[in-house]
Sequence to fold (90 residues):
Amino acid sequence: MARKVISIETGVWKTGAIVPRNGIYSARHTEHRLPSEVTLLQGEPFPRCAACPSAVFFRLRRRLDDTSAALSFHVHLYELPVLDEVTQAS
Fold:
């Protein structure tokens, strides 16, 4: 039986899947305004929305190599914060 292969560069992952590669990922979520890009490390689960159980979808925007200065620290990102809604001035 053939397995479906998802290219890292064109694939889309959702909350709970395992991050396939260190990189900067775009985050898409229709229910709330979340950070548009997040840095995620290989082997960690893709984070959830802090306000609801609906999935957040991610796409790799830029790879980070293992020698990057950004990888000299390690923060576990379990959920993405909901950003305040922009209010219009009257």
